[in-house]
C-alpha cells in the first residue's frame, strides 16, 4: 500500500482526475494523469470485475502494480494518476505485464529515466 500522501483515495479527487486528466492507453493498461496544480504524486489502481470475477486475482494485480509504482516513484512526474487494468492483462506473465506498463509510462512521457 502507498503511504498516505501518495494515495488518491477520495471520490471527488478521483472524479476530478478522471474528468480533467489526459488519458494514455495500450492493450493492457489505461493511465489517466491530472497534473494541474500538482504538488505531489498520488495514485489509485483500478481492476474491475471484467478483468477477473475472482477478488484474489484482482487484488494480486493491484499489489503488483502498486509495488511497481512504489519502486519507480522517483522516476515519475508529479500528478494524480488513475491506473486501470484491462482484461487482456491476465493473458501475460507478471513481468511482461509490468513491462507493458513501463512502456506506456515512457511513451506518455510520464516516466523519466534518471
Structure characterization notes:
By secondary structure, this protein is of the alpha+beta class. The protein has three helices and four strands. The relative contact order is 0.23. The model has no long low-confidence stretch (mean pLDDT 91).
Whole-Å distance between the termini?
24 Å
> CATH class, anyone?
Alpha Beta
Q: Report the β-strand fraction as a percent range.
A: 15-25%
* Helix/sheet category: alpha+beta
Please state the average pLDDT score.
91
Q: What is the name of the CATH topology?
A: Ribosomal Protein S5, domain 2
Count of the separate structural domains: 1
What best-fitting shape do the alpha-carbon axes yield?
globular
Helicity range: 25-40%
What is the name of the CATH architecture?
A: 2-Layer Sandwich
Number of DSSP strand runs: 4
Please give the count of helices: 3
The ordered string of helix (H) and strand (E) elements is: HEEEHEH
Oligomer: single chain
CA-atom Rg in angstroms: 13 Å
pLDDT below 50 for ≥5 consecutive residues: which ranges?
none
Spatial sequence of strands, sheet with the most strands: 1-2-4-3
**Describe the biggest sheet?**
4 strands, mixed
Amino acid at each position: 500500500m502507498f503511504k498516505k500522501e501518495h494515495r488518491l483515495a477520495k471520490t471527488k479527487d478521483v472524479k476530478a482526475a478522471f474528468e480533467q486528466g489526459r488519458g494514455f492507453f495500450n492493450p493492457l493498461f489505461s493511465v489517466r494523469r491530472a497534473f494541474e496544480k500538482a504538488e505531489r504524486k498520488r495514485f489509485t489502481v483500478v481492476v474491475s470485475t471484467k478483468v477477473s470475477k475472482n477478488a484474489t486475482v484482482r487484488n494480486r494485480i493491484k499489489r503488483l502494480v502498486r509495488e511497481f509504482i512504489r519502486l519507480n516513484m522517483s522516476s515519475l512526474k508529479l500528478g494524480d494518476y488513475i491506473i486501470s487494468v484491462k482484461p487482456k492483462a491476465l493473458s501475460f506473465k507478471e513481468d511482461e505485464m509490468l513491462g507493458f506498463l513501463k512502456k506506456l509510462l515512457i511513451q506518455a512521457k510520464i516516466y523519466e529515466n534518471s
